[in-house]
Design brief:
seven-stranded mixed beta sheet, mainly beta, 0% helix, 11 strands, single chain, globular, 127 residues
């Protein structure tokens, strides 16, 4: 089992920045690809970013490309999502997730690809 705990969310004004953290415990976190998703009220959970076990090949949703950066620190068993130039449409609950694989699959953008999820952290961007 893998336990994931997100933190770092909160209120922020448009144009501001936040860094989300996802702390992992349980099985060997460093062996897993990790993803970030978000879900706004009344909407489906959507892909944000994903990274391979070694920190390579990060991939992003078009809506966040150039503004968000995913990274990881194996020593801290933590994956991060640096969010810059935030917009009101970024308002959502943000979740980290993994499917226990080293590399993410070709369908990394599908929420049902992931088996383990954190509880989420709320990000609210005001205009």
């Amino acid at each position: 089992q893998v336990q994931l705990v997100e933190s770092g969310g909160g209120p922020v004004q448009a144009g501001g920045s936040l860094r989300l953290s996802c702390a992992a415990s349980g099985r060997t976190f460093s062996n897993y690809a990790m993803g970030w998703f978000r879900q706004a009220p009344g909407k489906e959970r959507e892909f944000v970013a994903v990274i391979n076990w070694n920190g390579g090949s990060p991939a992003y949703a078009d809506s966040v490309k150039g503004r968000f950066t995913i990274s990881r620190d194996h020593a801290k068993n933590t994956v991060y999502l640096q969010m810059n130039s935030l917009k009101p449409e970024d308002t959502a609950v943000y979740y980290c997730a993994t499917n226990g694989r080293i590399y993410y699959s070709a369908t990394y953008y599908r929420a049902n690809e992931y088996d383990y999820w954190g509880q989420g952290t709320q990000v609210t961007v005001s205009s």
